[in-house]
Automatic annotation (TrEMBL):
Cofactor requirements of the protein: Mg(2+)
Lineage, uppermost ranks: Bacteria, Bacillati, Actinomycetota, Actinomycetes, Micromonosporales
Source species, domain of life: Bacteria
Enzyme class: transferase
SUPFAM superfamilies: ApbE-like
Molecular function via GO: metal ion binding; transferase activity
Keyword Flavoprotein appears in the UniProt entry: yes
InterPro entries recorded: ApbE, ApbE-like_sf
Pfam families from the UniProt entry: ApbE
Protein name: FAD:protein FMN transferase
Entry keyword Lipoprotein: yes
EC number: 2.7.1.180
UniProt keyword annotations, A-Z: FAD, Flavoprotein, Lipoprotein, Magnesium, Metal-binding, Transferase
Organism: Micromonospora eburnea
Catalytic activity: L-threonyl-[protein] + FAD = FMN-L-threonyl-[protein] + AMP + H(+)
Length: 244
């Protein structure tokens, strides 16, 4: 998926079991990459986009993703648009969705304590190996070695979108130009795929995305504007300062 993925399994399970769970997780994510990559001509999404694969012959996963993207297009007044670039690119939902599915599978397999980080889209469940809540740093948009916020919790889906890592890849679908106004948007909610899409939509909206996020039920957010202002919802699960 063009990004680094890390997995921290914190359950006290046999080494062989942990290894197998990790292999299953990364196997699933490799499968998603092969199916949804916009860089590989033989991927299912590319074959569908150029008309070489009829919808009736597409996988259940592709059909489900296309349906969910259509739902999210309606929910965001068109600002989450899998066709914003002129070709099909559901990456703004797929990365979070695939990590959410992987996390759900880990819980079902008896590993309810884990942290999965897919290029800044993070799903945490349970507690870390120390028994503490997971702490998740949100990258500073101008300093790749610093964080601007640290979040903490035991059941969080955290998605961040912005133009600081892959350049101006989020477009305003109404103008067809790179989005302006918000340098970084982080959305926290119960489902990582939805949070990923909402973060992308808010960046596409520009400054109007701040008001939209303020009225988004069931989610919290943090926004850094192009002029370096940090704004966040009151209920954002911020980590307490380190003692000492």
């Amino acid at each position: 998926m063009g990004t680094a993925i890390s997995l921290d399994l914190a359950d006290d399970l046999p080494a062989g079991t942990l290894h197998e769970l990790a292999e299953q997780t990364f196997g699933w994510l490799r499968e998603v990459d092969a199916r949804f990559s916009t860089y590989r001509d033989d991927s299912e999404v590319c074959r569908f986009d150029r008309g070489a694969l009829p919808l009736a012959e597409a996988s259940a996963d592709l059909r489900a993703v296309l349906e969910r993207c259509a739902d999210l297009w309606r929910a965001t007044d068109g600002f989450f648009d899998a066709y914003a670039t002129g070709r099909l690119d559901p990456s703004g939902y797929v990365k979070g969705w695939s990590a959410q599915v992987a996390s759900d599978r880990l819980v079902e397999a008896g590993a309810p304590n884990h942290c999965l980080n897919a290029g800044g889209d993070v799903r945490v469940r349970g507690r870390s190996a120390t028994g503490e809540e997971w702490r998740i740093g949100v990258r500073h948009p101008w300093d790749p070695l610093a964080t601007c916020l640290v979040l903490a919790g035991t059941d969080l889906a955290i998605a961040t979108s912005g133009g600081y890592e892959r350049g101006e890849h989020v477009l305003d679908p109404r103008r067809g130009t790179p989005a302006r106004g918000l340098r970084s948007v982080t959305v926290v909610g119960p489902d990582l795929g939805v949070a990923d899409a909402y973060a992308t939509a808010a960046v596409a909206m520009g400054r109007a995305g701040i008001t939209w996020l303020d009225h988004l039920p069931g989610h919290q957010h943090a926004v850094i504007t192009d002029d370096a202002r940090l704004l966040h919802s009151h209920a954002l699960p911020l980590a307490p300062p380190d003692s000492g």
